[in-house]
Design a protein that fits this description.
By secondary structure, the protein is of the alpha/beta class. Helices cover about 25% and strands about 15% of the residues. It contains 17 helices and 18 strands. Strand 12 and strand 13 form a beta hairpin. An eight-stranded parallel barrel has the order 1-2-5-6-7-8-9-10. A six-stranded antiparallel beta sheet has the order 11-12-13-18-15-16. The protein has a domain of about 130 residues: Golgi alpha-mannosidase II (Immunoglobulin-like).
Protein backbone atom coordinates (compact mmCIF):
# COMPACT_ATOMS: atom_id res chain seq x y z
CA UNK A 1 0.00 0.00 0.00
CA UNK A 2 2.94 2.33 0.41
CA UNK A 3 6.19 2.98 -1.41
CA UNK A 4 9.65 1.95 -0.30
CA UNK A 5 11.55 4.75 1.45
CA UNK A 6 14.80 5.39 -0.41
CA UNK A 7 17.61 6.65 1.82
CA UNK A 8 21.24 6.33 0.70
CA UNK A 9 23.68 4.54 2.97
CA UNK A 10 25.67 7.72 3.61
CA UNK A 11 22.58 9.34 5.18
CA UNK A 12 21.45 6.29 7.14
CA UNK A 13 21.26 6.34 10.95
CA UNK A 14 19.90 3.10 12.42
CA UNK A 15 17.82 2.90 15.61
CA UNK A 16 17.71 -0.61 17.09
CA UNK A 17 14.48 -1.15 19.03
CA UNK A 18 12.16 -3.79 20.49
CA UNK A 19 8.48 -3.50 19.54
CA UNK A 20 7.31 -4.01 23.10
CA UNK A 21 10.22 -2.41 24.91
CA UNK A 22 9.99 0.89 23.06
CA UNK A 23 6.25 1.34 23.57
CA UNK A 24 5.23 -0.40 26.79
CA UNK A 25 5.77 2.55 29.14
CA UNK A 26 5.13 5.47 26.78
CA UNK A 27 2.59 7.71 28.54
CA UNK A 28 1.11 9.11 25.31
CA UNK A 29 0.27 5.71 23.84
CA UNK A 30 -3.18 4.33 24.81
CA UNK A 31 -2.92 1.36 27.16
CA UNK A 32 -4.47 -1.05 24.66
CA UNK A 33 -1.75 -0.19 22.11
CA UNK A 34 1.29 -0.38 24.36
CA UNK A 35 3.73 -3.16 23.56
CA UNK A 36 2.27 -3.67 20.08
CA UNK A 37 2.89 -3.05 16.39
CA UNK A 38 0.13 -0.46 16.52
CA UNK A 39 1.88 1.23 19.43
CA UNK A 40 5.12 1.46 17.46
CA UNK A 41 3.22 3.15 14.64
CA UNK A 42 1.56 5.62 17.04
CA UNK A 43 2.19 9.35 16.38
CA UNK A 44 3.94 9.75 19.76
CA UNK A 45 6.64 7.24 18.77
CA UNK A 46 6.93 8.62 15.26
CA UNK A 47 7.37 12.12 16.65
CA UNK A 48 10.21 10.95 18.89
CA UNK A 49 11.97 9.15 16.04
CA UNK A 50 11.62 12.09 13.66
CA UNK A 51 12.78 14.50 16.34
CA UNK A 52 15.80 12.34 17.03
CA UNK A 53 16.69 12.33 13.34
CA UNK A 54 17.24 8.61 12.76
CA UNK A 55 16.37 7.23 9.33
CA UNK A 56 15.78 3.51 9.94
CA UNK A 57 14.22 1.42 12.71
CA UNK A 58 15.82 -2.00 13.13
CA UNK A 59 13.40 -4.25 15.02
CA UNK A 60 14.51 -7.12 17.20
CA UNK A 61 12.99 -10.39 15.92
CA UNK A 62 9.32 -10.19 15.00
CA UNK A 63 9.15 -13.63 13.39
CA UNK A 64 6.92 -16.01 15.35
CA UNK A 65 9.05 -17.54 18.09
CA UNK A 66 8.89 -19.80 21.15
CA UNK A 67 10.31 -19.68 24.66
CA UNK A 68 13.07 -22.12 25.57
CA UNK A 69 12.25 -24.89 28.03
CA UNK A 70 14.73 -23.68 30.67
CA UNK A 71 13.14 -20.21 30.64
CA UNK A 72 9.66 -21.61 31.04
CA UNK A 73 10.86 -23.70 33.98
CA UNK A 74 12.22 -20.52 35.62
CA UNK A 75 9.05 -18.54 34.98
CA UNK A 76 10.75 -16.39 32.33
CA UNK A 77 10.25 -15.78 28.60
CA UNK A 78 12.47 -15.16 25.59
CA UNK A 79 11.93 -11.41 25.46
CA UNK A 80 14.36 -10.75 22.62
CA UNK A 81 12.80 -13.42 20.39
CA UNK A 82 15.90 -15.12 18.97
CA UNK A 83 14.22 -18.54 18.86
CA UNK A 84 12.27 -18.59 15.61
CA UNK A 85 9.45 -21.02 14.90
CA UNK A 86 7.86 -19.50 11.79
CA UNK A 87 9.80 -17.58 9.16
CA UNK A 88 6.69 -16.33 7.34
CA UNK A 89 4.56 -14.98 10.21
CA UNK A 90 4.76 -11.99 12.58
CA UNK A 91 4.82 -12.80 16.29
CA UNK A 92 1.18 -12.64 17.36
CA UNK A 93 1.91 -11.49 20.93
CA UNK A 94 3.08 -8.12 19.60
CA UNK A 95 -0.34 -7.44 18.11
CA UNK A 96 -3.18 -5.81 20.01
CA UNK A 97 -5.61 -8.07 21.82
CA UNK A 98 -8.30 -7.10 19.31
CA UNK A 99 -6.11 -8.20 16.39
CA UNK A 100 -5.20 -11.47 18.11
CA UNK A 101 -8.87 -12.22 18.71
CA UNK A 102 -9.71 -11.39 15.10
CA UNK A 103 -7.16 -13.91 13.82
CA UNK A 104 -3.87 -14.21 11.91
CA UNK A 105 -4.87 -11.92 9.06
CA UNK A 106 -5.64 -9.11 11.49
CA UNK A 107 -2.25 -9.61 13.16
CA UNK A 108 -0.50 -9.41 9.80
CA UNK A 109 -2.50 -6.32 8.83
CA UNK A 110 -1.49 -4.60 12.05
CA UNK A 111 2.16 -5.30 11.28
CA UNK A 112 1.70 -3.92 7.75
CA UNK A 113 0.00 -0.82 9.14
CA UNK A 114 3.01 -0.23 11.41
CA UNK A 115 5.40 -0.45 8.44
CA UNK A 116 3.13 1.89 6.50
CA UNK A 117 3.13 4.43 9.34
CA UNK A 118 6.91 4.35 9.66
CA UNK A 119 7.27 4.83 5.92
CA UNK A 120 4.92 7.81 5.96
CA UNK A 121 7.17 9.28 8.63
CA UNK A 122 10.14 8.88 6.26
CA UNK A 123 11.67 5.94 8.15
CA UNK A 124 12.93 2.66 6.78
CA UNK A 125 12.15 -0.64 8.52
CA UNK A 126 14.77 -3.37 9.00
CA UNK A 127 14.08 -6.74 10.61
CA UNK A 128 16.52 -8.66 12.79
CA UNK A 129 16.15 -12.19 11.42
CA UNK A 130 17.26 -15.56 12.79
CA UNK A 131 17.77 -18.13 10.05
CA UNK A 132 20.78 -19.75 11.72
CA UNK A 133 18.83 -22.11 14.03
CA UNK A 134 15.26 -23.06 14.86
CA UNK A 135 13.19 -23.27 18.03
CA UNK A 136 13.86 -27.00 18.52
CA UNK A 137 17.04 -26.41 20.48
CA UNK A 138 19.33 -29.41 20.98
CA UNK A 139 18.67 -32.99 19.88
CA UNK A 140 17.09 -33.83 23.23
CA UNK A 141 14.39 -31.18 22.78
CA UNK A 142 11.02 -31.83 21.16
CA UNK A 143 10.35 -31.30 17.46
CA UNK A 144 8.51 -28.16 16.37
CA UNK A 145 9.73 -27.46 12.87
CA UNK A 146 11.94 -29.29 10.35
CA UNK A 147 13.14 -31.88 12.84
CA UNK A 148 9.90 -33.72 12.15
CA UNK A 149 9.99 -33.13 8.38
CA UNK A 150 13.56 -33.15 7.08
CA UNK A 151 15.93 -33.38 10.01
CA UNK A 152 18.77 -34.81 7.94
CA UNK A 153 18.65 -32.05 5.32
CA UNK A 154 17.78 -28.95 7.34
CA UNK A 155 20.33 -29.26 10.16
CA UNK A 156 24.11 -29.49 10.17
CA UNK A 157 25.56 -32.88 11.10
CA UNK A 158 29.07 -34.27 11.33
CA UNK A 159 30.24 -37.51 9.72
CA UNK A 160 28.87 -39.44 12.70
CA UNK A 161 25.38 -38.00 12.37
CA UNK A 162 25.71 -35.71 15.39
CA UNK A 163 24.54 -32.10 15.33
CA UNK A 164 27.16 -29.48 14.47
CA UNK A 165 26.24 -26.48 16.61
CA UNK A 166 27.94 -23.22 15.57
CA UNK A 167 25.18 -21.05 17.07
CA UNK A 168 25.27 -22.07 20.72
CA UNK A 169 21.52 -22.74 20.52
CA UNK A 170 21.52 -26.52 20.16
CA UNK A 171 21.22 -26.75 16.38
CA UNK A 172 22.41 -25.01 13.22
CA UNK A 173 20.45 -24.77 9.99
CA UNK A 174 22.29 -26.37 7.07
CA UNK A 175 22.92 -23.69 4.45
CA UNK A 176 24.93 -26.21 2.46
CA UNK A 177 21.56 -27.61 1.35
CA UNK A 178 19.90 -25.89 -1.62
CA UNK A 179 16.43 -26.26 -0.09
CA UNK A 180 17.51 -24.25 2.97
CA UNK A 181 18.80 -21.47 0.74
CA UNK A 182 15.52 -21.56 -1.23
CA UNK A 183 13.41 -21.36 1.92
CA UNK A 184 15.40 -18.39 3.22
CA UNK A 185 15.10 -16.51 -0.05
CA UNK A 186 11.36 -17.20 -0.10
CA UNK A 187 11.09 -15.79 3.42
CA UNK A 188 13.09 -12.65 2.61
CA UNK A 189 11.04 -12.02 -0.52
CA UNK A 190 7.81 -12.48 1.45
CA UNK A 191 8.69 -9.75 3.94
CA UNK A 192 9.80 -7.42 1.15
CA UNK A 193 6.91 -8.00 -1.24
CA UNK A 194 4.05 -8.48 1.21
CA UNK A 195 5.13 -6.21 4.07
CA UNK A 196 7.43 -3.72 2.30
CA UNK A 197 10.34 -4.25 4.68
CA UNK A 198 13.46 -2.30 3.64
CA UNK A 199 16.27 -4.40 5.07
CA UNK A 200 17.45 -7.27 7.24
CA UNK A 201 20.03 -7.75 9.97
CA UNK A 202 21.13 -11.40 10.03
CA UNK A 203 21.79 -12.91 13.45
CA UNK A 204 25.00 -15.01 13.65
CA UNK A 205 25.45 -14.46 9.93
CA UNK A 206 28.63 -16.53 9.33
CA UNK A 207 26.48 -19.64 9.85
CA UNK A 208 24.58 -18.70 6.69
CA UNK A 209 27.83 -18.70 4.73
CA UNK A 210 29.23 -22.05 5.88
CA UNK A 211 29.66 -24.75 3.27
CA UNK A 212 29.24 -28.52 3.53
CA UNK A 213 32.48 -28.65 5.52
CA UNK A 214 31.13 -25.97 7.87
CA UNK A 215 33.70 -23.41 6.67
CA UNK A 216 32.72 -19.79 5.96
CA UNK A 217 33.06 -18.50 2.41
CA UNK A 218 32.02 -15.07 1.15
CA UNK A 219 31.19 -16.75 -2.20
CA UNK A 220 28.61 -19.05 -0.62
CA UNK A 221 25.58 -19.83 -2.86
CA UNK A 222 23.32 -18.03 -0.39
CA UNK A 223 25.20 -14.75 -0.81
CA UNK A 224 25.34 -15.21 -4.58
CA UNK A 225 21.58 -15.86 -4.70
CA UNK A 226 20.79 -12.80 -2.57
CA UNK A 227 22.86 -10.59 -4.88
CA UNK A 228 21.15 -11.99 -7.98
CA UNK A 229 17.56 -11.92 -6.73
CA UNK A 230 15.60 -9.09 -8.45
CA UNK A 231 13.20 -8.68 -5.50
CA UNK A 232 16.08 -8.10 -3.09
CA UNK A 233 17.86 -5.46 -5.17
CA UNK A 234 18.32 -2.34 -3.06
CA UNK A 235 17.22 -4.12 0.13
CA UNK A 236 19.69 -3.57 2.97
CA UNK A 237 21.64 -6.64 4.07
CA UNK A 238 23.45 -6.31 7.42
CA UNK A 239 25.45 -9.07 9.06
CA UNK A 240 26.18 -9.84 12.65
CA UNK A 241 29.54 -11.14 11.42
CA UNK A 242 30.30 -13.73 14.08
CA UNK A 243 29.02 -17.04 15.39
CA UNK A 244 30.49 -19.44 17.96
CA UNK A 245 31.93 -22.00 15.53
CA UNK A 246 35.53 -22.36 14.37
CA UNK A 247 36.48 -19.39 12.19
CA UNK A 248 33.37 -17.63 13.37
CA UNK A 249 34.71 -14.05 13.47
CA UNK A 250 34.26 -12.56 10.00
CA UNK A 251 33.97 -8.78 10.51
CA UNK A 252 34.84 -7.03 7.26
CA UNK A 253 34.74 -10.23 5.19
CA UNK A 254 31.17 -10.35 3.98
CA UNK A 255 30.43 -9.76 0.29
CA UNK A 256 30.24 -6.38 -1.39
CA UNK A 257 26.79 -4.91 -0.96
CA UNK A 258 26.54 -6.07 2.66
CA UNK A 259 27.24 -4.03 5.78
CA UNK A 260 28.72 -5.58 8.92
CA UNK A 261 28.25 -4.82 12.59
CA UNK A 262 31.70 -3.57 13.59
CA UNK A 263 32.59 -5.03 16.99
CA UNK A 264 36.14 -3.68 16.77
CA UNK A 265 34.70 -0.18 16.55
CA UNK A 266 32.55 -0.87 19.63
CA UNK A 267 35.46 -2.08 21.73
CA UNK A 268 37.80 0.68 20.57
CA UNK A 269 35.46 3.52 21.53
CA UNK A 270 34.71 1.88 24.88
CA UNK A 271 38.41 1.38 25.58
CA UNK A 272 39.22 5.01 24.87
CA UNK A 273 36.46 6.67 26.87
CA UNK A 274 36.03 4.07 29.63
CA UNK A 275 38.93 1.68 30.18
CA UNK A 276 41.43 4.42 29.37
CA UNK A 277 39.85 6.78 31.86
CA UNK A 278 40.03 4.12 34.57
CA UNK A 279 43.70 3.53 33.81
CA UNK A 280 44.51 7.25 34.06
CA UNK A 281 42.56 7.57 37.30
CA UNK A 282 44.85 4.89 38.72
CA UNK A 283 48.04 6.56 37.57
CA UNK A 284 48.54 5.08 34.09
CA UNK A 285 48.86 6.82 30.75
CA UNK A 286 45.59 5.57 29.33
CA UNK A 287 47.03 4.53 25.98
CA UNK A 288 46.99 6.46 22.69
CA UNK A 289 44.29 7.68 20.34
CA UNK A 290 45.64 5.77 17.34
CA UNK A 291 43.08 2.94 17.40
CA UNK A 292 40.27 5.42 17.94
CA UNK A 293 41.40 7.43 14.93
CA UNK A 294 41.32 4.31 12.77
CA UNK A 295 37.84 3.44 13.96
CA UNK A 296 36.53 6.97 13.40
CA UNK A 297 38.04 6.93 9.91
CA UNK A 298 35.85 3.98 8.92
CA UNK A 299 37.97 0.94 9.87
CA UNK A 300 39.58 0.72 6.45
CA UNK A 301 41.91 -2.00 7.73
CA UNK A 302 38.86 -4.29 8.04
CA UNK A 303 36.87 -3.40 4.93
CA UNK A 304 39.17 -2.06 2.21
CA UNK A 305 41.03 -5.38 1.64
CA UNK A 306 37.77 -6.88 0.39
CA UNK A 307 36.89 -3.91 -1.80
CA UNK A 308 34.35 -2.42 0.59
CA UNK A 309 34.03 1.21 1.63
CA UNK A 310 33.63 2.77 5.06
CA UNK A 311 29.86 2.49 4.58
CA UNK A 312 30.18 -1.27 4.99
CA UNK A 313 30.88 -0.58 8.67
CA UNK A 314 27.83 -0.38 10.93
CA UNK A 315 29.35 1.47 13.86
CA UNK A 316 27.85 0.91 17.29
CA UNK A 317 28.84 1.28 20.92
CA UNK A 318 25.91 -0.65 22.35
CA UNK A 319 23.28 -3.06 21.06
CA UNK A 320 20.47 -5.07 22.61
CA UNK A 321 23.12 -7.56 23.75
CA UNK A 322 25.31 -6.06 26.48
CA UNK A 323 25.33 -2.99 28.71
CA UNK A 324 23.31 0.06 27.76
CA UNK A 325 25.25 3.27 27.13
CA UNK A 326 24.53 4.49 30.65
CA UNK A 327 25.37 1.15 32.26
CA UNK A 328 28.77 1.21 30.56
CA UNK A 329 29.49 4.27 32.71
CA UNK A 330 27.95 2.86 35.91
CA UNK A 331 29.06 -0.78 36.23
CA UNK A 332 32.41 -2.53 36.21
CA UNK A 333 30.74 -5.96 36.41
CA UNK A 334 27.58 -7.56 35.08
CA UNK A 335 24.61 -8.01 37.41
CA UNK A 336 22.48 -10.69 35.75
CA UNK A 337 21.04 -12.34 38.86
CA UNK A 338 17.48 -11.73 37.64
CA UNK A 339 18.14 -14.18 34.79
CA UNK A 340 18.33 -17.02 37.35
CA UNK A 341 21.54 -18.42 35.92
CA UNK A 342 23.73 -17.59 38.95
CA UNK A 343 25.14 -14.57 37.10
CA UNK A 344 27.07 -16.98 34.87
CA UNK A 345 25.44 -15.78 31.62
CA UNK A 346 26.50 -12.73 29.64
CA UNK A 347 30.00 -11.61 28.80
CA UNK A 348 32.59 -10.56 31.35
CA UNK A 349 34.45 -8.54 28.70
CA UNK A 350 32.50 -5.27 28.87
CA UNK A 351 35.18 -2.57 28.46
CA UNK A 352 33.18 -0.51 30.96
CA UNK A 353 34.03 1.81 33.88
CA UNK A 354 31.77 2.70 36.78
CA UNK A 355 33.42 6.06 37.54
CA UNK A 356 34.58 4.64 40.88
CA UNK A 357 31.09 3.81 42.16
CA UNK A 358 29.24 0.61 41.23
CA UNK A 359 25.62 1.15 40.25
CA UNK A 360 23.31 4.00 41.12
CA UNK A 361 24.96 6.93 42.85
CA UNK A 362 23.19 9.83 44.59
CA UNK A 363 26.37 11.90 44.15
CA UNK A 364 25.67 14.57 41.53
CA UNK A 365 29.36 14.73 40.62
CA UNK A 366 29.44 11.01 39.77
CA UNK A 367 26.22 11.25 37.80
CA UNK A 368 27.48 14.31 35.92
CA UNK A 369 30.75 12.58 35.04
CA UNK A 370 28.87 9.53 33.76
CA UNK A 371 26.56 11.69 31.65
CA UNK A 372 29.57 13.50 30.18
CA UNK A 373 31.21 10.21 29.22
CA UNK A 374 27.97 9.06 27.57
CA UNK A 375 27.88 12.32 25.59
CA UNK A 376 31.48 11.82 24.49
CA UNK A 377 30.75 8.32 23.22
CA UNK A 378 27.62 9.44 21.37
CA UNK A 379 29.54 12.32 19.79
CA UNK A 380 32.30 9.96 18.69
CA UNK A 381 29.74 7.57 17.17
CA UNK A 382 27.97 10.26 15.19
CA UNK A 383 31.14 11.89 13.88
CA UNK A 384 32.69 8.63 12.68
CA UNK A 385 32.68 7.56 9.05
CA UNK A 386 30.42 4.58 8.41
CA UNK A 387 26.79 3.91 9.31
CA UNK A 388 25.93 4.64 12.97
CA UNK A 389 23.50 2.56 15.03
CA UNK A 390 21.90 3.88 18.22
CA UNK A 391 20.25 1.48 20.66
CA UNK A 392 16.76 2.55 21.75
CA UNK A 393 16.90 4.34 25.07
CA UNK A 394 20.57 5.30 24.92
CA UNK A 395 19.49 8.79 23.93
CA UNK A 396 17.60 8.83 27.25
CA UNK A 397 20.38 7.28 29.41
CA UNK A 398 18.31 4.12 29.91
CA UNK A 399 19.64 1.65 32.48
CA UNK A 400 19.16 -2.10 32.89
CA UNK A 401 20.59 -2.12 36.39
CA UNK A 402 23.83 -3.64 35.15
CA UNK A 403 22.20 -6.61 33.39
CA UNK A 404 24.19 -7.19 30.20
CA UNK A 405 22.12 -10.13 28.93
CA UNK A 406 18.50 -9.09 29.46
CA UNK A 407 17.18 -11.52 26.84
CA UNK A 408 14.65 -12.98 29.29
CA UNK A 409 13.58 -9.80 31.08
CA UNK A 410 10.17 -8.83 29.70
CA UNK A 411 9.61 -6.15 32.32
CA UNK A 412 10.64 -2.64 33.32
CA UNK A 413 14.27 -3.70 33.40
CA UNK A 414 14.25 -3.91 29.59
CA UNK A 415 11.50 -1.46 28.66
CA UNK A 416 12.35 2.14 27.78
CA UNK A 417 11.45 4.45 30.67
CA UNK A 418 9.94 7.68 29.35
CA UNK A 419 9.88 9.43 32.76
CA UNK A 420 12.92 11.61 32.09
CA UNK A 421 15.27 13.23 34.58
CA UNK A 422 17.15 16.45 33.72
CA UNK A 423 20.19 14.30 32.85
CA UNK A 424 18.01 12.23 30.49
CA UNK A 425 16.56 15.30 28.77
CA UNK A 426 20.01 16.79 28.33
CA UNK A 427 21.22 13.58 26.68
CA UNK A 428 18.22 13.55 24.33
CA UNK A 429 18.80 17.17 23.34
CA UNK A 430 22.50 16.71 22.63
CA UNK A 431 21.85 13.53 20.63
CA UNK A 432 19.37 15.42 18.45
CA UNK A 433 21.96 18.14 17.86
CA UNK A 434 24.66 15.59 17.06
CA UNK A 435 22.45 13.97 14.42
CA UNK A 436 21.86 17.36 12.77
CA UNK A 437 25.58 18.07 12.79
CA UNK A 438 26.34 14.67 11.30
CA UNK A 439 24.01 15.41 8.40
CA UNK A 440 26.05 18.48 7.57
CA UNK A 441 29.56 17.13 8.16
CA UNK A 442 29.15 13.64 6.67
CA UNK A 443 26.56 14.14 3.94
CA UNK A 444 29.23 13.60 1.31
CA UNK A 445 31.24 10.76 2.81
CA UNK A 446 32.45 8.54 -0.03
CA UNK A 447 30.42 5.46 -0.78
CA UNK A 448 32.18 4.04 -3.81
CA UNK A 449 35.34 1.92 -4.00
CA UNK A 450 38.08 2.74 -4.62
CA UNK A 451 37.77 6.15 -2.99
CA UNK A 452 39.49 8.89 -4.93
CA UNK A 453 41.81 11.23 -3.02
CA UNK A 454 39.64 14.22 -3.92
CA UNK A 455 36.53 12.56 -2.46
CA UNK A 456 37.41 13.12 1.16
CA UNK A 457 39.78 15.16 3.27
CA UNK A 458 40.51 13.63 6.66
CA UNK A 459 43.42 15.29 8.44
CA UNK A 460 44.61 14.65 12.00
CA UNK A 461 46.30 17.33 14.09
CA UNK A 462 47.93 17.57 17.51
CA UNK A 463 47.04 20.18 20.15
CA UNK A 464 49.68 22.42 18.63
CA UNK A 465 47.71 22.63 15.39
CA UNK A 466 50.48 20.75 13.59
CA UNK A 467 49.85 17.42 11.86
CA UNK A 468 50.10 14.32 14.02
CA UNK A 469 53.40 12.47 13.77
CA UNK A 470 54.25 8.80 14.08
CA UNK A 471 55.87 9.53 17.44
CA UNK A 472 52.73 11.22 18.79
CA UNK A 473 50.51 8.38 17.58
CA UNK A 474 52.64 5.95 19.58
CA UNK A 475 53.06 8.00 22.78
CA UNK A 476 51.19 6.61 25.77
CA UNK A 477 48.94 9.30 27.22
CA UNK A 478 48.74 11.31 23.98
CA UNK A 479 44.97 11.33 24.05
CA UNK A 480 44.12 14.80 22.77
CA UNK A 481 43.86 15.51 19.06
CA UNK A 482 41.91 17.21 16.31
CA UNK A 483 40.48 15.89 13.05
CA UNK A 484 39.20 17.85 10.08
CA UNK A 485 36.63 16.17 7.86
CA UNK A 486 35.55 17.54 4.51
CA UNK A 487 33.88 15.32 1.93
CA UNK A 488 32.69 15.65 -1.64
CA UNK A 489 29.14 16.97 -1.62
CA UNK A 490 29.31 17.96 2.03
CA UNK A 491 27.88 21.38 2.71
CA UNK A 492 30.14 21.96 5.68
CA UNK A 493 33.60 20.88 6.70
CA UNK A 494 33.86 19.89 10.33
CA UNK A 495 36.50 19.95 13.03
CA UNK A 496 36.27 17.43 15.89
CA UNK A 497 38.48 18.38 18.84
CA UNK A 498 38.94 15.64 21.42
CA UNK A 499 40.46 15.78 24.89
CA UNK A 500 40.68 12.34 26.46
CA UNK A 501 43.06 13.44 29.21
CA UNK A 502 42.48 14.38 32.85
CA UNK A 503 43.59 18.01 32.35
CA UNK A 504 42.38 20.98 30.30
CA UNK A 505 43.99 21.22 26.86
CA UNK A 506 44.64 24.40 24.88
CA UNK A 507 44.10 23.34 21.27
CA UNK A 508 45.50 25.54 18.50
CA UNK A 509 43.02 25.49 15.64
CA UNK A 510 44.83 24.15 12.57
CA UNK A 511 45.42 25.71 9.19
CA UNK A 512 43.10 24.06 6.72
CA UNK A 513 42.30 24.83 3.10
CA UNK A 514 38.54 24.52 2.87
CA UNK A 515 37.49 22.94 -0.48
CA UNK A 516 34.27 24.96 -0.59
CA UNK A 517 33.26 28.04 1.37
CA UNK A 518 29.64 27.21 2.12
CA UNK A 519 26.82 27.71 4.59
CA UNK A 520 27.19 26.94 8.26
CA UNK A 521 25.22 24.29 10.12
CA UNK A 522 21.55 25.37 10.02
CA UNK A 523 19.56 25.79 13.19
CA UNK A 524 22.41 26.44 15.62
CA UNK A 525 22.76 29.64 17.63
CA UNK A 526 24.52 32.47 15.82
CA UNK A 527 24.72 35.00 18.65
CA UNK A 528 28.08 36.38 19.67
CA UNK A 529 29.10 35.69 23.24
CA UNK A 530 30.73 38.62 25.06
CA UNK A 531 34.44 38.11 25.56
CA UNK A 532 34.74 35.32 22.99
CA UNK A 533 37.94 35.08 21.00
CA UNK A 534 38.10 35.32 17.25
CA UNK A 535 36.26 37.34 14.64
CA UNK A 536 33.35 36.82 12.32
CA UNK A 537 35.53 37.13 9.23
CA UNK A 538 34.63 34.66 6.47
CA UNK A 539 37.00 34.14 3.57
CA UNK A 540 35.69 34.53 0.06
CA UNK A 541 35.11 31.60 -2.26
CA UNK A 542 38.25 30.33 -3.86
CA UNK A 543 40.54 32.14 -1.42
CA UNK A 544 42.70 29.07 -0.71
CA UNK A 545 45.26 30.96 1.35
CA UNK A 546 42.78 32.73 3.63
CA UNK A 547 42.53 31.69 7.25
CA UNK A 548 39.64 29.43 8.10
CA UNK A 549 36.87 30.46 10.46
CA UNK A 550 35.81 27.89 13.06
CA UNK A 551 32.30 28.16 14.44
CA UNK A 552 31.48 26.16 17.56
CA UNK A 553 28.37 24.06 17.02
CA UNK A 554 28.51 21.72 20.03
CA UNK A 555 30.60 20.84 23.07
CA UNK A 556 29.98 17.95 25.41
CA UNK A 557 31.17 20.10 28.33
CA UNK A 558 28.18 22.21 29.37
CA UNK A 559 30.21 25.35 30.12
CA UNK A 560 32.04 25.33 26.80
CA UNK A 561 28.74 24.52 25.06
CA UNK A 562 27.41 27.89 26.23
CA UNK A 563 29.78 29.43 23.67
CA UNK A 564 28.00 27.68 20.80
CA UNK A 565 27.81 30.10 17.89
CA UNK A 566 31.13 31.74 18.67
CA UNK A 567 33.81 31.97 15.99
CA UNK A 568 37.55 31.49 16.14
CA UNK A 569 40.27 31.88 13.49
CA UNK A 570 43.08 29.62 12.37
CA UNK A 571 45.83 29.80 15.01
CA UNK A 572 43.50 30.73 17.87
CA UNK A 573 43.48 28.61 21.00
CA UNK A 574 40.39 26.89 22.37
CA UNK A 575 40.66 25.45 25.87
CA UNK A 576 38.96 22.08 26.05
CA UNK A 577 38.00 20.80 29.53
CA UNK A 578 39.14 17.32 30.57
CA UNK A 579 37.31 14.37 29.05
CA UNK A 580 35.29 16.32 26.50
CA UNK A 581 34.91 16.97 22.79
CA UNK A 582 33.90 19.98 20.74
CA UNK A 583 32.68 20.31 17.16
CA UNK A 584 33.23 23.24 14.85
CA UNK A 585 31.94 24.11 11.40
CA UNK A 586 34.75 25.38 9.15
CA UNK A 587 34.27 28.16 6.62
Amino acid sequence: RDQRVLIPWERTIIYEAHVKGLTMLHPEIPHELRGTYAGLGHPAVLEHLRGLGVTAVELLPVHAHLDEAHLTANGLTNYWGYNTLGFFAPHACYATRAAQQAGPTAVLDEFKDMVDALHRAGLQVYLDVVYNHTAEGGPDQRAYCWRGLGEGEYYRHDEHGNYVDVTGCGNSVNFADAQVVRMTLDSLRYWVEECHVDGFRFDLAPELGRDEHHHFTRNHPFFVAVAADPVLQGVRMISEPWDVGAGGWQTGRFPAGWADWNDQYRDTVRDFWLSGQRTMRRGGGGGTAARLAGAMSGSADLFAPNGRTTLASVNFITAHDGFTLYDLTAYDSKHNEANRESNADGTNDNHSWNHDHEGFSPDVRVRSARAATARNMMATLLFSQGVPMITAGDELLRSQGGNNNAYCQDNRLSWVDWALTPFDRSMLHITQRLVRIRRAFLAGQPHEFPTRPQDVVLNWYANSGEPMTAELWQTDGERALQVVLAARGGRVAGLFVLNGTESPVAAVLPAFEHPARTELVPGDRDARVPGARGTSHAAGAGDATAASTYRLVLATDSHLDELTGNRWRTGDEVTLPPQSVAMFAIT
